[in-house]
């Protein structure tokens, strides 16, 4: 029996999706708006987002639109 390893960005994406579903943030809000919600972990997530080509001004909807998190 093999288990599929979930990419950390999948987990982050699910957390952000949950924030959108709860109306805490909106899909058109910029990514920087979620910074306070992730507290001490934001520095890590911000670095990951930048590594994947996101800017903090990008809308949250762009993060949610990613299907597969590939690292090359």
Explain this structure.
It comes from Limnospira platensis NIES-46. Pfam families: DUF4327. This is DUF4327 domain-containing protein. By secondary structure, this protein is mainly α. The protein contains 3 helices and no strands.
| Cα gyration radius (Å) | 12 Å
N- to C-terminal separation?
27 Å
* Number of helical regions: 3
Arithmetic mean of pLDDT: 91
SSE string, helices as H and strands as E: HHH
Number of strands: 0
Instruction: Give a quick account of the main beta sheet: strands, pairing sense, barrel closure.
Output: none
Organism: Limnospira platensis NIES-46
Pfam families: DUF4327 (PF14217)
Protein name: DUF4327 domain-containing protein
InterPro entries: DUF4327
From the structure above, extract its key features:
3 helices, mainly alpha, about 40% helix, about 70 residues
């Amino acid at each position: 029996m093999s288990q599929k390893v979930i990419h950390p960005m999948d987990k982050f994406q699910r957390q952000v999706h949950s924030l959108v579903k709860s109306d805490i943030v909106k899909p058109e809000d910029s990514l920087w708006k979620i910074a306070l919600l992730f507290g001490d972990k934001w520095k890590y997530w911000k670095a990951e987002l930048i590594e994947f080509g996101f800017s903090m001004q990008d809308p949250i909807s762009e993060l949610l639109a990613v299907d597969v998190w590939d690292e090359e």
